[in-house]
């Protein structure tokens, strides 16, 4: 009997920040709190509040769990997202191929996804076997302190993309992705129990064995994101200029043109440019916020770890080298990324 | 006449603005003692989340606890601390930690209205402590920077 082929899910990993993308607008733009333990928080811009049952988590909002916290989000179609302790999980929005999609990301911690239903046009449908109905896709994602990611698939299929390379990971398989590198070798999970805590410790140990190299890898990958941000921003500026011109033309038509001319110009020129401009701004912000997450939850945390490690040996040459690189990264961040952020992002 | 003098004294005291806890030397020394010797759980209760470490914001409870625990494990303390200066925070105070948007917003958004920078000299160098608000008769620790070079 052939194993039913579940609908495929595509996962983009970006140096420890795992961005989940479906081939279609997978989810509505909100998820609801179905269950929680402890005192997890919901951060929206500058505001933070305790989570409660039934709360909606919208795009732009972040769920933060402490060491004793756990949150389970649900969406229509019996889809669920289980956010483990010590995790920062954010819903963001991005425009791809003319569609706005919700992107789920977490730069630290562990999240388990279960998708029973994929909706939308253009979806990839796997071949059905003798078992009727669509099997769900369930997988877990670990985000390591060094920017590494591990994806463990329980059921279904997950495409994992990094550095322009995509690999298909099936049920009972797993894969690691390190910052700045394409996906690693797929491994068989059967007979190989993996827990987040042990994996996280291993990642940290490896980073601390050569922290300068670790930070350089993160920097390299971060620069890829920044280049995408800059490219998108330049397109945004060009589109914003076109929009300004289109608006000027609309004003002319309002004065001198007919209603039909005005309506046609608005529908065929001005509105599409406006939409495109908005989408480009959205995508620029998406990249900028991704870099901010990297700075906050990978680079910043590693700075703290290194500082405590060398607190009684601050003149250590390895530490001084690390600090110099860290300083350069923050300088570049301040010059290039901060202009795309606003105070509510902090 | 005696009652008049007492009444004037009471009025004079009432007119004096209360000095925030974070700006009182005795309270600052209590915080330093907590950092140096207190139970980590107690220290965590008097530590703000998020926390500013030099120019980096620590936003996870786990990380802040790791910081204090790791410093304790390294036997690092603010030993033999002497307060050199206590300064209420102003609009530009954030630059003493780092002249970045991150730190400016931290001061603006997360620091209490009575935020104070305390400069201390210790056996392990000079540090800036960022204190404010109050909990259990001590100011909260919002961050620290140092040792200053």
Describe this structure in words.
The complex is a heterodimer of chains A (346) and B (149). Chain A is α+β, with helices and mostly antiparallel strands. Chain A folds into two domains: 9-200, Jelly Rolls, CATH 2.60.120.1440; 210-345, no CATH class. Chain A is 38% helix and 30% strand. Chain A contains four helices and 17 strands. Chain A has helices spanning 196-209, 211-256, 259-309, 317-337; strands at 8-14, 17-21, 30-37, 41-44, 47-50, 56-58, 61-64, 70-75, 79-83, 88-96, 99-115, 137-143, 149-155, 157-162, 165-170, 173-177, 187-188. Chain A has a 17-stranded mixed β-sheet that branches. In chain A, β1 and β2 (17-21) form a beta hairpin. In chain A, α1 crosses α2 (211-256), α2 (211-256) packs parallel to α4 (317-337) and α3 (259-309) packs antiparallel against α4. Chain A is globular. The termini of chain A are far apart. In chain A, 41% of the residues are buried. Residues 1-7, 13-28 and 120-135 of chain A have low confidence and may be disordered. By secondary structure, chain B is of the alpha+beta class. In chain B, 37% of the residues lie in helices and 29% in strands. Chain B is built from five helices and six strands. The radius of gyration of chain B is 17 Å and the shape is globular. Chain B starts with a helix and ends with a strand. In chain B, 37% of the residues are buried. Classes of the chains: A alpha+beta (346), B alpha+beta (149). Chain A binds chain B through residues 46, 64, 66-67, 86, 88, 108, 296-297, 300-301, 303-305, 307-309, 311-312, 314, 330, 334, 338, 341, 343, 346, and chain B through 53-63, 65-67, 70-71, 74-76, 100-102, 105-106, 108-109, 147.
CATH class of the largest domain in chain A: Mainly Beta
Taken from the alpha-carbon principal axes, the silhouette of chain A is: globular
- Structural class label of chain A: alpha+beta
Summed up, the helix count of chain B is 5
Structural class of chain B: alpha+beta
Give the C-alpha Rg of chain A. 22 Å
Listing every helix as H and every strand as E from the N terminus to the C terminus, the arrangement of chain A reads EEEEEEEEEEEEEEEEEHHHH
How many DSSP E strands of chain A?
17
Helix content of chain B: 25-40%
Please, what is the oligomeric state? heterodimer
Largest sheet of chain A, in brief, is: 17 strands, mixed
Question: Any idea of the CATH topology of the largest domain in chain A?
Answer: Jelly Rolls
Got a strand count of chain B? 6
Proportion of residues in extended strands of chain A? 25-35%
Radius of gyration of chain B equals: 17 Å
Calculate the terminal CA-CA distance of chain B, rounded to whole Å. Answer: 59 Å
